[in-house]
Specification:
Blueprint (H helix, E strand, L loop, with lengths): L5 E5 H12 L7 H15 L14 E6 H4 L4 H8 L7 H22 L5 H8 L8
Antiparallel strand pairs: 1-2
Helix pairs in contact: 2-5, 4-5
Length: 130
């Protein structure tokens, strides 16, 4: 099986990633937002099988793998976690979509949460004082 050459987001997630950049102003560009969503899914899914939670919605190509992972860090991280190289970019795409979905739900539950709050929660420190 050949690995993916381009990565895509489902329609809802793509709109959300655009909003993280344009409305929320959390990231300078969609690539940074996509990478964060990938990392967010990895942290949130500790020990769980992320594939079970992946949507099967059609995806629109957003990035070439050479653009989103120019230095191969995402692929190397998945190799360390035991993901086959044959499907590592499929997993990157799935994790970006899953992470965006999880983050979107987190923000819909509490729209006043900030990016730093999300990071602190993942470090086990809880939300920052308001």
């Amino acid at each position: 099986m050949d690995d993916k050459k381009t990565l895509g987001l489902n329609h809802e997630v793509h709109s959300f990633v655009e909003a993280l950049v344009s409305s929320w102003k959390w990231f300078p560009d969609q690539q940074s937002a996509g990478r964060f969503c990938f990392a967010y899914a990895l942290v949130r899914q500790q020990g769980a099988d992320p594939i079970q939670d992946v949507d099967d919605a059609p995806r629109t190509t957003v990035w070439n793998v050479g653009t989103i992972d120019s230095d191969g860090t995402m692929r190397q991280l998945l190799a360390i976690l035991g993901v086959s190289e044959e499907a590592s970019y499929r997993m990157v795409e799935d994790l970006m979509n899953l992470g965006a979905t999880l983050l979107q739900k987190r923000l819909s539950d509490n729209p006043s949460v900030g990016l730093w709050d999300i990071i602190r929660e993942q470090q086990g420190e809880g939300p920052s004082p308001q």
